[in-house]
C-alpha cells in the first residue's frame, strides 16, 4: 500500500528542506518506498479533517491503510522498522541506533529550535539581542559534545542508520545560521548525509513543490 504524507503547500523555508516532511521523505527514499504527498495550507492544517490526523495541526503526517501517524520521529521509526536498511539487524546495534534517533530530537533539536524561535518570533523584543548569545552557546555545547563523539567516523555508530538520518536532518536546520561551520566534523557529517542519492531525491521533490507554487512570468 502506498503511504501518503502531508507537507506544506507553500513552505515558509522556500524549499530549503528545513521543514520536517524532509526527514520523512528521505527515509522513504532510503528504503525505496514510493509515497504520495498531500499538500496543505496553514488554514487546512487547522481544519477538523487534518486535526483528526494531527492533534496539533501540523505537518508531517503519515497514512498507510488504517495506520495514521504524526511526529516525524515516530514516522521515521515506523518506516525504519517496516523496511530493511535503516536499522541494524544486530539487536544491540539496533537499540543504539534508536537511541540516536531520540538524541537527535530530544537533545540536539530543542536548542536549535530555541535559536529559530529567538530569531523569528522574538527578534523584535528589547531583550532579544542580549539573549541570543546564551541560546547560541547552548547549541555550541551540544555540537561540541556530538563532534567529539563522532570523531573521525563517518556515522555515529557503524553503518548509516535512522539515527544518522534523524541527526543529519536536525543538524541541517542549523545550516542557515552558519554555526555548523564551527564544527568541521559535523559539517562534513551533514555533507555526507546530503550526498546520499536518497537525500538528493527527497530534497528535489520538496523543492519542486515550492517551485511549482511560485507564480510564473
Ligand atoms: N514535533 C513535530 C514533528 O517532529 O513532526 C513538529 C512538527 C512541526 O513543527 N511542524 C511544522 C508545522 O506544521 C512544520 S516543520 N508548523 C505549522 C504550525 O505549527 O502551524 C517546522 C518548520 C517550519 C518552518 C521552517 N522554515 O520556514 O524554515 C522550518 C521548520
What does this structure look like?
- By secondary structure, the chain is α+β, with helices and mostly antiparallel strands.
- 56% of the residues lie in helices and 8% in strands.
- The chain has helices at 21-31, 42-45, 48-51, 72-82, 91-120, 128-150, 162-172, 184-194, 197-213; strands at residues 4-8, 36-40, 61-64, 67-70.
- It has a four-stranded mixed β-sheet with strand order 2-1-3-4.
- Strand 1, helix 1 (21-31) and strand 2 form a beta-alpha-beta unit.
- The longest helix is centred in the middle third of the chain and has 30 residues, at 91-120.
- The radius of gyration is 18 Å and the shape is globular.
- Bound molecules: S-(P-nitrobenzyl)glutathione.
- S-(P-nitrobenzyl)glutathione binds next to helix 2 and helix 4.
Q: What is the typical, i.e. mean, pLDDT?
A: 96
How far apart are the first and last residues' alpha carbons, in Å? 39 Å
Give the spatial strand order of the biggest sheet.
Answer: 2-1-3-4
Helical content class: 55-70%
Q: What is the element string, with H for helices and E for strands?
A: EHEHHEEHHHHHH
Structural class: alpha+beta
Number of helices: 9
What's the count of strands? 4
User: Are there runs of 5+ residues with pLDDT below 50, and where?
Assistant: none
Categorize the overall geometry. Answer: globular
Query: How would a textbook summarize the main sheet?
Result: 4 strands, mixed
Strand content: 5-15%
Quaternary status of these chains?
A: single chain
Instruction: Tell me which ligands are bound.
Output: S-(P-nitrobenzyl)glutathione
- Roughly how many Å is the radius of gyration? 18 Å
